[in-house]
Design a protein that fits this description.
- Among the domains are: 26-106 and 117-191 and 273-311, 5'-nuclease (Rossmann fold, 3-Layer(aba) Sandwich); 348-566, Ribonuclease H-like superfamily/Ribonuclease H (Nucleotidyltransferase, domain 5, 2-Layer Sandwich), CATH 3.30.420.10.
- The chain is built from 38 helices and 23 strands.
- The protein has a six-stranded mixed sheet with strand order 3-2-1-4-5-6, sandwiched between helices. A six-stranded mixed sheet has the order 7-10-9-8-11-12, sandwiched between helices.
- α3 packs parallel to α5, α29 packs across α36 and α33 (793-800) packs across α34.
- It is globular.
- The relative contact order is 0.07.
- Residues 709-915 form the DNA-directed DNA polymerase family A palm domain.
- In addition to polymerase activity, this DNA polymerase exhibits 3'-5' and 5'-3' exonuclease activity.
- Belongs to the DNA polymerase type-A family.
Length: 951
């Protein structure tokens, strides 16, 4: 396994560094013979733990974090030596800051049980390399770094702090510089200004106002980094600002500062690093020492780190020490990404078993490899494997052809390995827990590989660059490999069309010559690995690591299993539904023609527009660029509500039947597999809110409460001896609304099990709960759900069939009764305008790209999206959290239920009849227990032989 510089990477920059030594951009011209390097060890521990797959040493102790840390330190020391160096650790969770503010970092969970035993081994690793190890009870590593850096700089030395922790940016200047080991970027004053909007000496003032939710530093609610920087630029520091609050023109901002002045003062004390902490070791104790080969060898052998031993050139007797650069002026801190700048190709074509074994061994040495498949099509459950792409370092990738054919009828198939022989080599590698497999859109490749090679290829552990990107930037941009390569690597990959052609001239990939196939396919693996190096470190930096690790990453295999299982469809019942729909469409068409006064093509928007706005003279017609009237669903809904004319509603009914017939009756019949089941494809990274989308076929748009939708759902059935179990979250988005907004009456209603719509009607109309009639409840229900989507008075008027003035009155009464909801909505819009994104209740960033659009219509749509995204995104995350926990919970309960579908807030299972009653409480307990809100989650469960019966 090649050495890593930051544990989120797994290969080194040796070749590039040897060819082109880099001048140190960090070191100040003070005394080049005195250079102190302070490594933030605590930060590396957690990056290593989350970045590397689980592994154990010969004694069975978890060591993935130890291994990553050891790799980093080995590579670091082989590249660089200052005159002084130390790795600084946190000694304990409790420090003087907890005495000052007990809530400081109180929300942080305990270390995972598999990480806890690694802390001591990491300290042993530091000792084995003869590097000074610094820690002190009652003080954070940041304080010790601040104290050593300040003292060393005062003596005329230069200091490099190896850390990406923004809290240490306050130290920059006066001979002290930082190096971000994730971005490989030196941090000077200019970078601090870019991050905080102020010079380093003012960073603590900005942090005091903005606070930090990660560390539970309160700050002043409503003031972010940008606003804080503006205030500090104007007033200089927190105390001056607080003494001149009367000058603040914005009432809300002034009030927030007045009410939270003490929080700002406490926050300043919490964020300011202590530069006068006791020094656990004297400065001379940090002097660089060469490692003792025997001591280092003993540690590596004890942990089973043979690849590190090999990388360092240590033979069995431990004779060869780690090399260090010579000379009085140390080299720069070379924490560059592996083989940065390596060209994209040429790549290797693997056609012999020896070459495949060599590449497999290189993957085991690297500890991480990128993997991709080339297939005969895009349907993972029907496509055949043509070849496999592998990459073990940027620029080092290969293509393994498996089922290539001749380029035409007369040419023979090219030389390639027998399929089974190749599988015998790949199978143990892909299942090796010590080698992380990185894929892009992993679900597709896992399904293909699972069906192949005599029982399938199991691939584990897995990282997915598409889902890493999605966890970071949902809604911000697309997450296809080519787009990400352009965005993050400034590289345009070879396109599929370039190697296969287009149109009628397109040839199957299996007929692409091997040199061209290799150039295209191996590049995919190379790009995937480079994207992993670029994006994986950002997860922690952008506070998206837990979302990815606990939800999105685990969803990959959950959805793979659901798609492969599929759901059974009763073909004859589906045909009968189609016959009924066709009959009802014909009857509706006759009614439409009678109302219109003449026959016309109901499915023609142009002819319909001429009837409605030309011949009938209905108002509200709008012509598009083509000159034809618009007759989309929104226009017809508006016409039906404003004019009361029957024709628009009849056409809408006809269109729904037509869509159901074509999409579900005809569509499902076409997509029915040989096993009698349909296997939908769940797209994981399409929506801006985190929701899954379903395609081929789309099973998420079947109307829930209509008679027609129920007719379709009756065709989805259980296998003999089984029942379908539907588990549906009840009013989940409204519960999230009650959670995030200060609305005591709504929280009370949910907590006591009241009908939320009747309670809302009672509150806004001022009538006793037992006097709420059906119409009042209907209106309350419409506004309850509409408010989550930012519905306007005009929209509500259309939904309720009332005038805009009356609708505005209802909305005003709603917000007067529930001011906390209006405050929450305004806060979401302000967050979007300020940051470009909103957060779900669980901290996921949902980007709102057009929030600053000049066009009022686009900006209005973005504001409505900002209001809705936290609720829809929060609901999506809750059901995903349930989905990743349910398979394990069912296994532990020894139940055979299979999860088949996820449709918005509902999960559908196929359950053996004799296990239904035992399965219900397990499903309900998991789904209701995945999140703790200010109101309870509730799940409704139904069962039946068909989906309609269970719903």
């Amino acid at each position: 396994m090649t050495a890593i510089t930051d544990p989120v990477g797994t290969a080194s920059a040796d070749e590039a560094a040897d060819k082109a030594p880099v001048a140190d951009p960090i070191v100040a011209e003070v005394d080049p013979s005195r250079h102190l390097i302070l490594v933030d060890g605590s930060g590396y521990i957690f990056r290593a733990f989350h970045a590397l797959p689980p592994m154990t040493n010969p004694a069975g102790v978890p060591v993935n974090a130890v291994f990553g840390f050891t790799q980093m330190l080995a590579n670091f020391l082989s590249k660089h030596a200052g005159s002084h160096i130390a790795v600084v650790f946190d000694a304990s969770r409790s420090t003087f800051r907890n005495e000052l503010y007990p809530a400081y970092k109180a929300q942080r969970p305990e270390a995972p049980p598999e990480l806890a035993p690694q802390f001591g081994l990491i300290r042993e690793a530091t000792d084995a390399f003869c590097v000074a190890r610094v820690e002190l009870d009652g003080f954070e590593a940041d304080d010790l770094i601040a104290t050593y850096a300040t003292a060393f700089a005062k003596e005329g030395g230069q200091v490099t702090i190896v850390s990406s922790d923004k809290d240490m940016m306050q130290l920059v200047g006066g001979g002290i510089r930082m190096l971000d080991p994730i971005k490989q970027k030196p941090i000077h004053a200019a970078e601090v200004v870019e991050k905080f909007g102020v010079m380093p000496e003012k960073v603590v003032e900005v942090q005091a106002l903005a606070g930090d939710s990660t560390d539970n530093i309160p700050g002043v609610p409503g003031i972010g980094i940008k606003t804080a920087a503006q205030l500090i630029e104007t007033y200089g520091d927190v105390e001056t600002l607080l003494s001149r609050l009367s000058e603040i023109k914005q009432p809300k901002r002034r009030q927030a500062l007045e009410e939270n002045a003490e929080k700002a003062r406490i926050s300043r004390k919490l964020v300011e690093l202590d530069r006068n902490a006791p020094l656990p070791l004297p400065m001379e104790g940090l002097a660089t020492r060469a490692p003792e080969p025997g001591k280092l060898m003993a540690f590596l052998k004890l942990q089973g780190f043979r690849s590190v031993q090999h990388r360092l050139g240590l033979d069995a007797s431990g004779e060869v020490p780690v090399s260090r650069p010579a000379g009085p002026a140390p080299a720069p801190v070379a924490l560059t990404l592996p083989a940065e700048g390596a060209p994209f190709g040429p790549y290797e074509t693997i056609t012999t078993i020896d070459a495949l074994h060599a590449f497999a061994e290189a993957a085991r040495t690297a500890g991480v490899m990128a993997l991709d498949t080339e297939t005969t099509g895009l349907d993972a459950l029907n496509a055949s494997l043509v070849g496999v792409c592998l990459a073990v370092a940027p620029g080092r990738a290969a293509y393994l052809p498996l089922r290539h054919e001749g380029t035409d009828m007369l040419s023979p198939a090219p030389e390639q390995l027998p399929f089974d022989a190749a599988m015998d080599v790949l199978r143990p590698l892909l299942a090796d827990p010590s080698v992380l497999k990185v894929l892009h859109n992993a679900k597709y490749d896992l399904e293909v590989l699972n069906r192949e090679a005599n029982g399938g290829l199991e691939v584990s552990p897995v990282d997915d660059t598409m889902m890493i990107s999605y966890s970071l930037d949902a809604g911000r941009h697309g997450h296809g490999m080519d787009e990400l390569a352009r965005r993050h690597l400034s590289h345009q990959p070879i396109t599929y069309d370039e190697v296969t052609g287009t149109g009628r001239g397109r040839k199957p990939f299996a007929q692409v010559p091997l040199d061209e196939a290799t150039r295209y396919a191996a590049e995919d693996a190379d790009v995937t690995l480079r994207l992993w190096h670029a994006l994986r470190p950002k997860l922690r930096e952008e506070k998206a690591l837990a979302l990815y690790e606990e939800v999105e990453r685990r969803m990959i295999t959950v959805l793979r299993d659901m798609e492969m299982a599929g759901v059974k469809v009763d073909g004859p019942a589906l045909k009968q539904a189609g016959a009924e729909f066709t009959e009802r469409m014909a009857a509706l068409e006759a009614e439409i023609h009678e109302i219109a006064g003449r026959p016309f093509a109901v499915g023609s928007p142009k002819q319909l527009g001429e009837i409605l706005f030309g011949e009938m003279g209905l108002s509200g017609g709008r012509k598009g660029k083509s000159g034809a009237y618009s007759t989309d669903a929104a226009t017809l809904e508006e016409l039906a509500a404003s004019t009361g004319h029957p024709l628009p509603r009849k056409v809408l009914d006809w269109r729904q039947l037509s869509k159901l017939n074509s999409t579900y009756v005809e569509g499902l019949q076409a997509q029915l597999a040989a096993d009698g089941r349909v296997h939908t494809d769940f797209s994981m990274a399409i929506t801006s809110t985190g929701r899954l989308s379903s395609t081929e076929p789309n099973l998420q748009n079947i109307p829930i409460r209509s008679q027609e939708g129920a007719r379709i759902r009756r065709a989805f059935v259980a296998e003999p001896g089984h029942l379908l179990l539907a588990a549906d979250y009840s009013q989940i988005e409204l519960r999230l609304l009650a959670h995030v907004a200060e609305v005591p009456s709504l929280r009370e209603a949910f907590a006591t099990g009241q009908d939320i719509h009747s309670r809302t009607a009672s509150d806004i109309y001022g009538i006793p709960p037992d006097k709420v009639d059906r119409e009042a409840r209907r209106r309350a229900k419409t506004i309850n759900f509409g408010i989550i989507y930012g519905m306007s008075a005009f929209g509500l008027a259309g939904r309720l069939g009332i005038g805009a003035g009356e609708a505005r009155g209802i909305i005003d009464a709603y917000f007067a009764q529930y001011p906390g909801i209006r405050d929450a909505m305004e806060r979401f819009k302000e967050d979007a305008r300020t940051n470009g994104y909103v957060l779900t209740p669980f901290g996921r960033k949902l980007w709102i790209p057009e929030i600053g659009a000049r066009d009022q219509g686009r900006r209005g749509n973005a504001e409505r999206a900002a209001i809705n995204a936290p609720f829809q995104g929060g609901a999506a995350e809750i059901i995903k959290r349930a989905m990743v926990r349910l398979p394990k919970a069912l296994r532990e309960a020894r139940l055979r239920a299979r999860m088949l579908l996820q449709v918005h807030d509902e999960l559908l299972f196929e359950v053996p009849e004799d296990e239904v009653e035992a399965t219900k409480p397990v499903v309900q307990a998991v789904m209701e227990g995945v999140a703790t809100l200010r109101v309870p989650l509730a799940v409704e469960i139904g069962t039946g032989h068909s989906w309609a019966e269970a719903h």
